[in-house]
Write a structure and sequence with these properties.
Layout: E1 5-10, H1 24-31, E2 41-47, H2 51-55, H3 64-84, H4 86-96, H5 99-148, H6 156-224, H7 229-259, H8 266-317, H9 320-334, H10 341-359, H11 366-401, H12 408-448, H13 453-473, H14 475-505, H15 511-528, H16 533-547
Antiparallel strand pairs: 1-2
Helix pairs in contact: 1-7, 3-13, 3-14, 3-15, 4-14, 5-6, 5-8, 5-9, 5-11, 5-12, 5-14, 6-8, 6-9, 6-13, 6-14, 7-8, 8-11, 9-10, 9-11, 10-11, 11-12, 12-14, 12-16, 13-14, 14-15, 14-16, 15-16
Keywords: Membrane, Transmembrane, Transmembrane helix
Length: about 550
């Protein structure tokens, strides 16, 4: 999305000289040497910078050593907030996998089967993560749209309000969805969760159109309340016209004076010319400022609208592939084929067909990419869930061969428990990666659009830290599901900071800046994350890949 605005350049001309020897004709030639332009205005040029060129500008902090130091410091900020989320997330997972909270899930394995359980929980958790991120983005966009109509788009207040709104939206929606899912599972089991997921997927389509209609109406209200650029432009044009008329009248009076044989003082003419030139420059400066402010406002509003449209489409359509897979596998599980080999083949074919159909689209969009990734993730979770139960069966057979007999009921109970445990662990980790990646997909493009590396990295880290403290304080009120959803929202807010740091690493003008940023990001995450090398080693590359994705 490019922008185009008028840039007026001025070439200073010498003052018009008046002396008793000058003729009226020569004076007229000096005054009207440019019939359509007043003296002092040399040319009119149009400058249209493209957004791609803006995104390719390199950062520079002086010497390579200084770039490395600044990059390390900012990268460490993003890494530290990522590492700070590790311990609270792990504690929440331990609470969720305790005997009490895990019992409703274990009881439902018999209903939908291991494959159905894996795909259903995986699709639900990923849908929750995607919904919470989109809710945060939309709330931030709404605040930004309302703010951009009344003030400057590059102010600290603008970015602070938008960031706070986005972080609050993602955390609140995550907590709400977490509490809702926990209540549905406890009261209606996995079939109730499947019904809720299916209904939510179907209802998103009409809500998609309703939201776009409401957004257009809200945008129209913001436009009505914005600065009246037409009135400002007309006022400037009237001022400029009055200035030209006044100058033309002065010239005619001087011409009449010369025709009558009078003269004009050289000092007076120089002073008059300087005054006229200063007034012209003030008018041109005010006109340029108004044009640039109007163009900046319209460009920002167009960009906000583009972001909202893409993320609403993403929310509406990205969960469909996962939901289809969950419905199919859960349906087989209900009829007693949840762990049959034939169901595994059907599931594999279904995933391959949907992925091929989406990837072959001539108009490939962001939601298609995330939809494929989410569907493949649910397939992997289902495989891990099935494998965990099969490991228990294999172990029981080995113990039976060794003379340690176990009852079929005992083996089945252990198999269901292990399958449920693996499903929750894999799902929670996948949802955390999803939140982190989608958060990075917001932070990365913001930095590439020159929103300000320090503002995005440090601001998002501070907001995520505050939300993390707030979630831990409200943990008794939120409950297990609410705390889990809220913490995933915090991870998404931290992902904005991590994604911004990852995007900044590629914008330095020298390698030391890039390496320093990466080193700060990794070391900060490891130190604050209590050296969880495997987890951090998986999360940082995911954040980098999503940060480099042009989701906007």
């Amino acid at each position: 999305m490019g922008c185009c605005h008028t840039n007026r350049g001025k070439e200073a001309l010498p003052p018009i000289s008046f002396d008793s020897q000058g003729s009226v004709d020569s004076l007229r030639k000096q005054v009207w040497r440019e019939p359509d332009k007043p003296p002092g205005e040399a040319y009119l040029s149009v400058y249209c910078p493209s957004q791609d060129n803006m995104s390719r500008t390199k950062l520079g902090a002086g010497s390579p050593l200084m770039e490395a130091a600044v990059g390390f410091a900012l990268g460490a900020v993003g890494g530290c907030i990522l590492g700070a989320t590790e311990d609270p997330v792990d504690k929440t997972l331990l609470l969720m996998t305790a005997a009490g909270p895990l019992k409703p899930v274990v009881d439902e394995v018999r209903t939908v089967g291991a494959l159905g359980l894996g795909t259903l929980i995986g699709a639900t958790a990923l849908t929750t993560a995607m919904t919470s991120v989109v809710a945060g983005v939309i709330l931030a966009a709404a605040v930004a749209s309302a703010h951009v109509s009344t003030s400057h788009t590059d102010s600290v207040r603008f970015w602070a309000l938008a960031g706070l709104a986005g972080a609050f939206g993602i955390t609140l929606s995550g907590a709400t969805l977490g509490v809702s899912i926990e209540w549905i599972v406890k009261n209606y089991g996995m079939l109730g969760l499947l019904l809720a997921l299916s209904m939510f997927t179907v209802l998103k389509l009409p809500l998609h159109f309703a939201f776009k209609l409401l957004w257009k109406q809200g945008e129209a209200c913001c436009t009505l309340g914005s600065k009246d650029w037409d009135s400002e432009r007309k006022h400037t044009e009237v001022t400029e016209l009055q200035h030209r008329q006044r100058k033309a009248l002065q010239m005619e009076q001087r011409i009449l004076t010369l025709e009558k044989g009078g003269g004009a003082s050289g000092m007076e003419s120089t002073t008059t010319w300087a005054t006229e030139q200063r007034q012209r420059e003030e008018i041109e400066s005010r006109k340029m400022q108004n044009e640039e402010a109007e163009m900046a406002q319209r460009t920002m509003q167009d960009w906000i609208n583009t972001v909202v449209v893409k993320y609403v489409d993403f929310l509406t359509f990205s969960g469909i592939p996962m939901t289809v897979v969950a419905i199919v596998t859960s349906g087989f599980g209900v009829f007693g084929y949840g762990g049959h080999q034939a169901v595994l083949v059907v599931l594999l074919i279904l995933v391959a067909v949907i992925a091929y159909w989406l990837l072959q689209s001539s108009d490939f969009k962001f939601w298609m990419l995330i939809g494929c990734m989410g569907m493949l993730t649910t397939f992997v979770i289902a495989m891990l869930t099935l494998h965990a139960g099969q490991v228990v069966v294999t172990t029981g057979m080995k113990m039976h061969a060794a003379g340690k007999k176990q009852s079929r009921e005992d083996i089945s109970a252990r198999m269901y428990h292990q399958s449920s445990l693996e499903a929750l662990k894999a799902t929670f980790f996948a949802a955390k990666l999803c939140e982190l990646g989608l958060g990075a997909a917001v932070g990365g493009p913001l930095v590439r659009r020159a929103a300000g590396e320090v503002k995005v990295i440090v601001g998002a880290a501070l907001v995520a830290g505050g939300l993390l403290a707030g979630v831990e304080f409200l943990a008794p009120v939120l409950g297990g599901g609410g705390e889990a959803g809220a913490l995933l929202g915090v991870v998404g807010a931290a992902g904005v900071s991590v994604g911004a740091a990852a995007a900044m690493a590629g914008r330095w003008s020298s390698w030391p800046g890039t390496l320093g940023t990466v080193a700060g990001l990794v070391i900060g995450a490891l130190v604050m994350g209590k050296w969880h090398i495997v987890n951090i080693g998986l999360q940082v590359p995911v954040a980098y890949v999503f940060a480099m994705t042009n989701s906007f």
